[in-house]
Design goal:
The complex is a heterodimer of chains A (460) and B (323). With 460 residues, chain A is an alpha/beta fold. The relative contact order of chain A is 0.15. Chain A is built from 13 helices and eleven strands. Chain A is globular. Chain B is an alpha/beta fold. In chain B, the strands form three sheets. Chain B has a seven-stranded mixed β-sheet, sandwiched between helices. In chain B, strands 9-11-10-13-14 form a five-stranded mixed β-sheet, with helices on both faces. In chain B, strand 6, helix 7 and strand 7 form a beta-alpha-beta unit. In chain B, helix 1 packs parallel to helix 7, helix 3 runs parallel beside helix 4 and helix 8 packs across helix 12. Chain B is globular, with a radius of gyration of 19 Å. In chain B, 62% of the residues are buried. Classes of the chains: A alpha/beta (460), B alpha/beta (323). At the A-B interface, helix 7 and helix 8 of A face helix 1, helix 2, helix 3, helix 4 and helix 5 of B.
Chain lengths: 460, 323
């Protein structure tokens, strides 16, 4: 997308918003390719993806649900200190004084659901505060990763999944785990490397999974590898006659990896129900997004894959939910993958050891005003009047109680016995039964019968 | 029925797909074209494009998708056009697939298969023996059959196994060897070596195409009165420690033979096993015959020089016999 500078405000703002409710088929006249050449934009639907038609019209559509579109540029700049020594620092430019936008009403969430998401966001944050305290008490092995400022993205996206759907979190999606039914103590024990942690101490953080009940694939530390894996889950389920949605996440840093491309492209050509939440949180460890990619919005990449893309405000739980819900519905209908770009900011360092001194302070100030929990709380209490002050206080107190009880469980779990490092490398002696999860795969047999193959011509 | 090595693998996969609807294949050009070496020729017409999937040229996606499908209880068989290209998927295999069962207890019943090996002038990117990359990764089974009977029995065993199996098909053997393979269903257990030839004077422990080089050398040596015992390992992980120890106890002298580069090759590991299990039974130094420590070159004279030869085995056997 070399022409991203040409994108007019008119194009990317008003028009996008108009089409926000129909991401799968919405079309907007292109950001010109310069010579008026146009072709059909990616379309949903299995048949269509197989028989994509060339026309004389190239139309692009990236619906943008956001109520505001903060555009910052972060560049490296040489500064001189008092002694005249030069230092390279990051400098931000853009409208840092923009007023706080309202939460968009969800087209799908009712009062009860909105309050549940809010509750999960509170659990998410308070669990991470508890983890920070456990770390300070020396009870954590290694570091702690936070999703501060990203709770709406984690919780509202995972909330859109059905029970039979699958997901895989990234390091900051600890809220997604809570939504999918894992306990806070599971994550806490992982961080403390305890015997009762889901991996029995063999790995930490959110690196665990469950293919039986909660349909979670364990993440690994390398970025992007989950994407083809989740596509494969959808492929396996489809062979068994089920269209499941498979949700995973990738950051603006992680999407730089090659396997990200391979995975999305595979899901696209196979028309698999991948829901990829691209969490544009502006910083990949210490590297700003301006140094990760050149296009304006990562959602634009969806065009290159031939799949729908949509942009949401990652600090607005309603927008995240709506986009995720629509993507999940598409997946259930067998219409293929969706890329959701959620824009927000990582409000802490990469992990607990990192004070994030490289981030210009104005950025923290800007996004602090957009705290997803404060915004959603205000929305539920003031805008919608779905919660009274008293109900809210009771809810927060209850969440505090839960987290304290979970903390107790986690702290009281023993460390694993040293010998428990052994065994389990292979699945053997009947330790697991492998059978198709959704029933016997539907088999279609052609008329071809076995006959010996002709001689190969390659490297005889 | 007389089957080539390639036909035996093809028949094994075909029969497994007939037997178990959870088995499916994916890979580059495996469907309509039938695979670069025609291992899956005709499969798409029989089993349909749903179960014989032509993929983009994206090895990480192939492994990732196979792994994901295996988590839902499917048994994917992923083809690599050449095993050299499996390097493109190394992170998926090493960090995702291999560690899964140990870390979070999910079985990953998938097969990663494809042609490897030299002697066909494929050059540095179509002749490699990358098996040791996987031997070094706990959690993977590594299988290297040498005969049509074993190739069929082992591919079936790999497909039925609940663990990720990396299956190396030696492309030199594909259509060069033929043998009688039973009509009825059978599997060859993974992890059991076989004696390819019995002999009293010394042992050659090897696998894949080198088994045949050793057999050729054995004929020559036999005429001189030197009887070598040939152990075909069949699988590198799990490795049959017992068979290694037993042959050393019988012959007291051993040659370790493989195409893979000498440094970091399996011979070093086997030598360590012999040291641990049968040190007192040795009557001579452990001899290694292996590929050179370089990339495998393209030009036939250079490739010939790089790879182990029958005459190397004959020469080293005479030397060791005389020791």
């Amino acid at each position: 997308m070399g022409n991203n500078n040409k994108k007019s405000k008119h194009n990317s703002n008003e028009r996008r918003a108009n089409h926000g409710s129909r991401p799968a088929t919405a079309r907007v006249r292109a950001d010109a390719d310069g010579n008026g050449r146009v072709a059909t934009a990616a379309r949903a639907g299995r048949g269509e993806s197989q028989t994509r038609q060339d026309t004389d019209l190239r139309t692009y559509s990236i619906p943008d649900y956001r109520a505001e579109r903060p555009a910052f540029t972060v560049l490296q700049r040489v500064e001189k200190d008092a002694d005249g020594n030069e230092h390279v620092r990051y400098e931000v430019s853009g409208d840092l004084d923009a007023p706080l936008p309202p939460i968009r009403d969800s087209r799908y969430l009712d009062r009860q659901q909105a309050i549940q998401i809010y509750r999960y966001m509170l659990l998410n944050r308070k669990m991470e505060v508890a983890l920070e305290n456990l770390y300070k008490q020396g009870k954590v092995v290694g570091g702690v990763y936070f999703g501060l400022g990203q709770e709406a993205c984690s919780c509202a996206s995972a909330y859109a999944l059905d029970k039979d759907d699958w997901f895989a979190p990234m390091i900051r999606n600890q809220g997604s785990l809570l939504v999918r039914g894992f306990r806070a103590s599971d994550t806490m024990m992982q961080y403390m490397a305890k015997a009762d942690s889901p991996t029995g101490g063999r790995d930490g953080t959110s690196h665990f999974g469950d293919i039986e009940k909660r349909n979670m694939v364990s993440p690994i530390s390398m970025l992007g590898d989950l994407i083809p894996v989740l596509a494969g889950v959808a492929l396996g389920a489809r062979l068994q006659g089920r269209n499941v949605a498979v949700m995973t996440y990738i950051g603006d840093g992680g999407q730089s990896t090659g396997v990200t491309y391979e995975g999305i492209n595979f899901a696209a050509v196979q028309n698999l129900g991948l829901v990829l939440v691209v969490e544009s949180n502006l910083w990949a460890y210490s590297t700003p997004s301006n140094m990760q990619y050149r296009c304006k919005d990562l959602a634009e990449r969806a065009l290159g894959y031939g799949i729908p893309g949509v942009i949401v405000d990652g600090t607005d739980a309603c927008q995240v939910y709506d986009a995720a819900h629509e993507a999940v519905e598409r997946a259930h209908r067998g219409e293929g993958p969706t890329l959701i770009e959620a824009k927000m900011m990582r409000m802490k360092g990469h992990a607990i050891h990192d004070a994030a001194g490289y981030v210009p302070k104005e950025m923290f100030e800007f996004w602090k005003k957009r705290d997803p929990i404060a915004r959603f709380e205000n929305y539920l209490l003031q805008d919608k009047k779905w919660l009274t002050g008293q109900e809210n206080e009771a809810l927060i107190a209850h969440v505090d109680e839960i987290i304290e009880a979970e903390r107790e469980i986690a702290v009281n779990s023993p460390m694993p016995a040293p010998e428990s490092a052994e065994g389990g490398v292979f699945c053997e002696n009947g330790c697991h039964e492998v059978k198709p999860k959704y029933g016997t795969p539907k088999v279609r047999k052609g008329t071809g019968s076995y006959k010996a193959t002709e001689a190969a011509v390659h490297l005889k | 029925m007389q089957l080539t090595y390639l036909e035996a693998i093809r028949q094994g996969i075909w029969e497994e797909m007939e037997r178990d609807p959870a088995v499916f294949c994916l890979g580059e050009d495996i469907g309509v074209y039938g695979g670069a070496f025609k291992v899956t020729d005709g499969f798409i017409d029989r089993f349909g494009p749903e179960r014989v999937i032509d993929t983009p040229i994206a090895e990480s996606a192939i492994v990732g998708a196979a792994f994901g499908a295996s988590l839902t209880g499917m048994r994917p068989v992923a083809e690599f056009q050449f095993m050299d290209f499996i390097a493109c998927a190394m992170n998926q295999i090493s960090n995702m697939v291999a560690k899964t069962h140990y870390l979070w207890g999910a079985p990953a019943p998938l097969v990663l298969r494809g042609p490897s090996g030299g002697y066909v002038h494929g050059g540095p990117f179509h002749s490699q023996n990358p098996e040791m990359w996987f031997v070094h990764n706990p959690g993977l089974k590594v299988i290297c059959p040498a005969t049509p009977y074993d190739a069929k029995g082992l591919i079936k065993a790999a497909i039925r196994d609940n663990n990720p199996c990396v299956f190396f098909e030696h492309k030199y053997l594909y259509r060069r060897i033929k043998e009688e393979v039973p009509q009825e269903d059978y599997v060859v257990p993974i992890g059991k070596a076989r004696i390819a030839r019995e002999g009293r004077d010394l042992s050659v422990i090897t696998y894949a195409a080198m088994v045949h080089s050793a057999l050729e050398a054995a004929e020559i040596l036999s005429k001189e009165g030197i009887e070598i015992e040939i152990v075909d390992l069949r699988s590198l992980v799990p490795i049959d420690r017992q068979a290694i120890a037993q042959t050393v106890k019988r012959t007291n002298k051993v040659i370790l033979l493989h195409e893979h580069s000498r440094t970091g090759g399996l011979a070093g590991e086997i030598a360590a096993i012999i040291n641990e299990e049968a040190f007192d039974d040795l009557d001579g130094p452990i001899v290694r015959i292996a590929g050179l420590d370089s990339a495998i070159p393209f030009s036939p004279p250079q490739e010939h020089h790089y790879l182990p030869k029958v005459e190397d085995i004959v020469r080293e056997s005479r030397r060791l016999k005389a020791y």
